[in-house]
Each structure stands twice: as structure tokens, then as C-alpha cells.
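Review form for a predicted model. The reviewer records the input and the model, then writes brief findings.
Reviewer: anonymous (R2)
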Amino acid sequence: MDADFRMIAEELVRRREHDFSVRERLLEAGRLNDGYDPEMEAVHLGNAAWLEAVVEKYGYPTIGRVGADASNAAWLIIQHAISRPAFLRRMLAVLRSLPEHEADPKNAAYLEDRIRIYEGKPQRYGTQFDRDDDGLLSPVPCDDPAQVDRRRATLGLPPLAEVTAEMRKRDTGRPTREELERHRARCRAWLIETGWRTPPQENSR
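Model under review:
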């Protein structure tokens, strides 16, 4: 690993750990339960801008360039840059173009699912969860439920039913119907504001 990529690898890991640290602090303060906290978003946007410049100058930080841990940190920065739809789509195309030994295939699967659900499309690998109508953590609908576990198995992911059961076991509480509706309304507004979705068109006479 040359000096430039060594510094990039160190910075990727540092930024990931800072992301986790800020998230933990905001979680303890109860600031992640009511929409996208501005401080958290600022961290994500700053990381994305830095990584975008790195990719522009040096290319994507692959496993061969920065090591597996730092390359996964790069993916996490992308995965968290949810306010930048074009950036996520562009990086998914880059990840899809890389050979398996240069980027964990699970990273592209997680990113593709995240993009699809923000676009209002069914996910393909069952990696993204949200509250269902009963307030339970559930996989966001998939395009072909019969094929999801097959796709997951090719990536080394456990069956979706096992993951769902484990997530529900760790879940600390279920929102009320009113809280759930407020959450969904905020999400719809955010998706439109950030450009993931277009505003609904009123019927014209």
C-alpha cells in the first residue's frame, strides 16, 4: 500500500468511527427518534463530500488499495449519505463494476436495496427494515419473496426469517399508531425534499 492510500485508509476508518461516535451520542440524547438529526446529517454529508473527492482523484478505495476494513468503511460512508441520491446511484454503479475480490458483494446488495426503497421500489435482498402497520420491525417489501433467501445465500447472508426474528427480539419498543403515522409522514416529506421521490400530482379537471 503506497503512502497516499495508507493515509486514505486511515482517514476512512477515522471517519467511520466518528460517525459511530456521533450516532451513539445522539441516540443516548434521544435525538434520533424524530427524523434525520441535522448534526448526524452534517457528518454524513461531510464524509460523502470527502469520499467523492477521493474517488475523483484516486479511484474507488478497493480492498487492493486500502484493505478490506477501510474499503468497507468507504461503503458505510456511501450507505449513510442518504441525502444525496445521485451520489448513491453513482457509487452503486462503481461497486457493481468491481470484481468480487476488490469489494465485498454484500456492500452493493445493501446499497441497491437502500436506493430501491427510497425510490419506492421493492428491495431484492431483504436488507432494509422498517415498521409495519402493527409497529413491528419487518423487511421492506421485496420484489420476489420466494427468491430473496436464494439471493441472500449467494452473499453469505442468513435467511430473512432468522434476521427478522433476531431484530424483533432486540427491539426495545413498539410505537403507537399515531407515532407511526407521524414517522411515515416525515419520511414521505424527506424523500420528496431530497429528490428521491417526486411530489404527488393533483388530479386536474
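Findings: Residues 15 and 21 are 10 Å apart (CA to CA).
Further findings: The first helix runs from residue 3 to 28.
Recommendation: see findings above.
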